[in-house]
Amino acid sequence: MRGKVIIITGASDGIGLATAKRLAADGAIVAMFARRADVLERAAAEIRAAGGQVETASVDVADSAAFDAAIQAVAKKHGRLDGLVNNAAKVTMGEIVSASDEDWRATFAAGADAVFTGTRAALRIMIPQKSGAIVNISSTNGRRAMGYMGAYSASKAALIQFSKVAAMEAAPHNVRVNAIAPGMVMTPGNAAFYKTQPDALNAVENAIPARRGAKPEELAGAIRFLLSDDSSYVNGVCLDVDGGKAAQLYMPG
Question: How many domains are there within the chain?
Fold first, then answer.
């Protein structure tokens, strides 16, 4: 990864931050995108203190023009773009019958529309340079159905199929597009919630074959693999990183 220029969205915490730390530690130049400038800068300062090379941009990926411009700015500054991780998303929950049009559209704006915007912008750079890798972060919810997650699940399912189409178009140009479907991940937000809901945590973890949620760093390792030359012949896949959840035929006991 040394010297590679990688953009990560939703990089201020969770999977995005863990990935930024991993790639920076491996020598990549990491451009961290997120909406909350103060949180983003604190995260970047931590990576810099460890010797990593990072830069930041306060960007709302749902703003197509701003997101596109931010990607172009990174490529122009460094003269190339080697990787993009479309990690930012919006999670909404609730019954379909009570969901609003606004919630549906906002969920898709961050979770699917922004993936289109980011992938399009990156491909416009990577195809002419004849190299690059894009990793789009989906979810087990995009693989399997769960009640009260209609908008989120639909956006993540759309992301998987879009990634496959993008991979077919990019492959002749030595550019790869893959997706990752995480299961339950113990991000700071999830950890804080489950700390107050131990029974819920036990129920969720007992329903996972691995009997635990993932650490953000475990997702970062998979993302790094798909960005690296170690996966040079891997294209158009959605890699489940979920402790076996998507493979499970669950039988209540």
Answer: 1
pLDDT tens for each residue of 237-246: 999 999 999 9
Range of the domain at 19: 5-241
pTM above 0.85, yes or no: yes
Condensed to tens digits (0 to 9), the pLDDT of residues 168-203 reads 999 999 999 999 999 999 998 888 889 999 999 999
Between the CA of residue 86 and those of 200, 211, 224, 252, what are the distances in Å? 29, 28, 13, 35
219 falls within a domain: yes
Residue 247 forms part of a structural domain: no
Mean pLDDT of the chain: 96
- Cβ atoms of residues 146 and 153 within 8 Å: yes
Structural domain includes residue 249: no
- Nearest in space to 135 (alpha carbons), one of 146, 126, 145: 126
CATH of the domain at 30: 3.40.50.720
The residues that are catalytic are 152
